[in-house]
Here is the input.
Amino acid sequence: MGRLWTLLSYAHSLAGYASVIAIETTSKLDDEQWLAYWILYSFLTLMEMVLQPALKYIPIWYDIKLALVAWLVLPQFRGAAFIYEKFVREQIRKIQNRPPQTADGKGKNKFVDFISSKKGEQEAY
Here is the structure.
């Protein structure tokens, strides 16, 4: 079993290599796939850390995770791009179409005012 996990770890490191190769190409399609993969893999890892006390009672969790990560990473399936396009992009568009509101109702916050102010108008700290 130890050799299997070593092989899987090595295969997972190839995702990092493929990400670097994708950055060097001119195609935006592979960049989107790998960026979506790393975002979703980070989210999966975070949820796994939070839900670890419950996941230890699910004996096939690591098999499910392996299948899910394989689906996300393999270019034949483009699972990461699929999830991003169907779920994440819709949520981001809903958030972006909503104007940001603050307590005073101006629609901007102090940070946005600071970074968008004209040269010479910044306050000295």
User: Anything to note?
Assistant: Helices lie at 2-24, 28-50, 52-55, 61-73, 79-97, 110-116. The CA atoms of residues 2 and 8 lie 10 Å apart.
